[in-house]
Amino acid sequence: MNWLNSEAFTLLDQHIIWSDMIGNVLGLITLALGWRRSLLTWPVQFLSGLVLFVAFYGHLAGSAGKQTVVMAVALYGWWQWNRTKDKAQDGHIVPRFATWRERGAMIAAAAAGTVLVALLFKAYPSLSWDPWPDAYIFVGTIVAMYAQARGMVEFWIAWLLVDVVGVPLNFANGYAFSGFVYVIYGALVLWGMRDWWLRSRDGARPVLEGAPA
To answer: pTM of the prediction?
Structure first.
């Protein structure tokens, strides 16, 4: 599988490698399927993680390890969407807004997780080339995928926050194709968020726990 780490082509003086291109194209498809609320979003997400795991395994253990977490969350998303009883007439999940308690829990988990993962990366430099932003993107991705698995509109906002750091970080570290794809991610996220927002507008809205809806 060494070909996955070889150069595919050069674009605007940036060297594009096969694993970076294939993994991120699959990630782009995943996001588009998520917009359509298709169950296929999860197997494609799993395949994206698998491609990157194979590419990283053996020389970038930390990056490979991160992809195993992504694949595990993809399996959870598949299971969660399959068991969800509240579905639209088209058989897809019905988006909803998170409760204030859920929002607070995700923000707290993202903050604490970023600190813990960054400290882990700093303790073991081989796990990451840039501990803090790398930890932020990794934890933010997991939080976004979790929120998506739960059908929360807020998962789009989480992806936007990941993009803000992901675009410059990928360009700075030579993963140009990832950087270009993250820009496209941003456009898809905005369209997807609008679609989910409209679909959930008449459904569940964020309310304080214990307060009247």
So the answer is: 0.77
